Amino acid sequence: MGLTILGTGRHFPKDRATNADLARVMDTEPDWIKQRTGIEARHFAGPGEWTSDLGAEAAKKAIARAGLQPSDIDYVITATMTPDHHFPGPAGMIGAKLGIPGVPCLDVRQQCASWIFQLQLAHALTLAGQARNVLIVGAEAHAGFMPWEDWDYLYGRGGNPPSKEAYDRATRHRGLAVLFGDGGGAVVLKKTDDDKRGVIGIDVHTDGRYVDFIYIRSGFNHRPYATKEMLDDDLHIPDMRGKDLFKHAVTKLPQSVRALCEKSNVKLDEVDLFVAHQANDRINGAVRDALKVSADKVPSNIARYGNTSSATIPILLDELNEQGRLKPGMLVCFLALGAGLHWGSALMRL
């Protein structure tokens, strides 16, 4: 029993911030951001624009491109690290916005590594006969934790220059703020009778000892879980140990890919494309070098969108699909690492 990609879609907020825009509100240089991350611009959700909105719009495009109606979807698996609410997760809201009440909608919380786990779940559901058409959605609205307040000034649409206190605050969070962008990506997967296509193997790992590499300190570990003092102390903004994340990613991801290829009896040079989570171009470059893979096999779009967390791989897949780079019979390796820490890789024959 196989699994095939039937349709893909992506959606972004209309507002776009360049590196030069970020330099308006913090002490940074556009070239420094580009050199350190590979990012040149990103989109940010506006007021009233929710994660579920971005995910639903991407999902509508994926379903349409699959030649289906929303009513043809049997199961929805959604991932985000920026849910509309603390609870419930956005999966049910995305289902409602698609007009499919009653269809099971599952939220997963593997953040930037979500796609690997979502693919594993979709594979298991179809193998078990529980679903035929599975919709995978990744969506993020990171704008809510960005460390500035005057968005008009950021975009050069008026507003007021930040005070020294506000400028210094944004600068303290610079290493995080320059990385993230908002958007949604979606993929429709279909069960097929062709056992020569679909998931060949998956290698996933979790190690909660490293939860503090990137996490939000506020939450239900406090009583009450939200106070003015917590906002004043920026406990709602993710705390990130960038150097530790980099070391873990460039070590664990090549290990996972090699282990997966070995147990799947696949040689690295047999893989046609390596579709990696778009966290930082320097990370993906180091992983590529460790695997001795040519750059043309490792596509990147981080320059245009930044790190959209759970949405990066679905968004990149949609671009590759649109460009005609996803060919029947191709062997694709997915790889990602995210907060938790969660990481892994997957092999799929298109």
Topology, please?
Elements: E1 2-11, E2 16-18, H1 19-22, H2 30-37, E3 41-43, H3 51-65, E4 75-79, H4 91-97, E5 105-108, H5 114-127, E6 133-140, H6 151-154, H7 164-172, H8 174-177, E7 183-192, E8 198-206, E9 214-215, H9 228-232, E10 239-240, H10 242-263, E11 273-276, H11 281-291, H12 302-305, H13 312-322, E12 331-338, E13 342-349
Parallel strand pairs: 4-5, 4-6, 11-12
Antiparallel strand pairs: 1-7, 2-3, 6-7, 8-13, 9-10, 12-13
Helix pairs in contact: 3-4, 10-11
CATH level-1 class of the largest domain? Alpha Beta
Helix content: 25-40%
Shape, principal axes of CA atoms: globular
Number of helices: 13
Q: What is the average of the pLDDT values?
A: 96
Number of structurally distinct domains: 2
* Radius of gyration using CA atoms only: 20 Å
Secondary-structure element order, N to C: EEHHEHEHEHEHHHEEEHEHEHHHEE
Distance between termini? 13 Å
Fourth CATH level, the homologous superfamily of the largest domain: Thiolase/Chalcone synthase
For the largest sheet, list the strands in their spatial order.
1-7-6-4-5
Helix/sheet category: alpha/beta
